[in-house]
Amino acid sequence: MINLKKSYIALAAVSALGINTNADSLRESITSGKASGEIRSITVMSSSTDSTEAGPFNNAHSSAIALQLKYETADYKGFKAEVGFQTAHSLDLENGNSTTADAPTFYNENESRITQEGSNLYLANLSYTRSNTEIKAGRQSISTTLMSISNSNPLVDTFHGLSIVNKDLPQTEVRFYAIKDWYERYSTTNDARIIHYKKPTYSVYAKNNSINNLTLEGQYLAVTDEVGNPTDAPVATDDKYKTYYGAFNYKLPTSIPLSIGAFYAVADYDSRTVGGYLSDDEDTNMYGIKLGGKIADTGFKLAYTRVDDDGDFIGNLGHVPNFFKYNGGQMFTDNFFAGVSSTSIMLVPKLIPGVFTLFAYSRYSQTDKGQANVSRGAYMDGASEIQADIRYKFNGAFKGLSTRLQVARVDYDNPADPDDKMTVAKLYLNYKF
User: Which of 10, 33, 76, 222 is the most buried (most CB within 10 A)?
Assistant: First the structure.
């Protein structure tokens, strides 16, 4: 087992040797580093619904602005240091946090993922690169299938640990992670949303493109501490667990761009979820298939996913289940509850020069056994979502400015809820400098 503390000490010692031998060059690497930043404004508006499946989007009227500043030193004998600061402030559009006695969960205007406030260092790491290997220790951003940061809200997640990335094998990338802390994207002063692992969380990720037109991808994630993943919504666990993931994507030799892909994932729970529905012999799995391509100037994807009846598939570390949203068409509904099947279609036409447009439709079904085993009572049988996603990046004097608007109509089709529909809009306005 890798000892993180020893790894940090070794890395710092090597760095110190470099400092002593050539201080002038180190000073130059610091003064010639790169500073960058981003101003992020996010607003969410949605109607109310009686369906608790809507989660925090239900009746949301929230807006916030965040600032991120990052500095990275220039390379010095293979070493680089990175520091990043973030702060967020709510614009207080919501009308209080209160709920009435008969209101469903989340029935208030405060979308708490948007309105988080505070400041912290989201990046603070030292890296060393030699040949085709990079070693990084400290607080860092990670983007993989089973563990990833999120950019969908003002504040971002960050992980504190050790990462090793190797590209020695031809057209192959292998990553190893040992994580001690997960700083969630919530209040930067709320220690309850910082997951401290007494035993490190480990993950190995691999991606290979050595066969022409074929991409292979796989990952293993092991949460070895009993704290588990207790606050990851909407599916959580309060004990150790493991997840496995494998996928492929193949570009077909056809006259038009066309590709097929599939994934299969397994969740191996050590004991139970917070809801108490999963035990040792009730682990679960999830799989999906997709077909994507382009006709003239219009891209398209068709996708199908299925979750085993025995239980929900655990959300990944970092709130971005990259393969759950398998074709990008499910933004305000979830397809990883027990017994749920989802079918979706996405179209990406070129309607206006320079403007990205996406239209998607997703529909769900759920088995009776799956409904009995979900961890929070989610009813998805017959639910559907129709969505439009519009993005634009400015040029010229406004270079660095970008905007994105997502609008969706969700029908939960729940016979127990008199009002089971919701309209939601999410507006992003970002400026990178």
Answer: 76
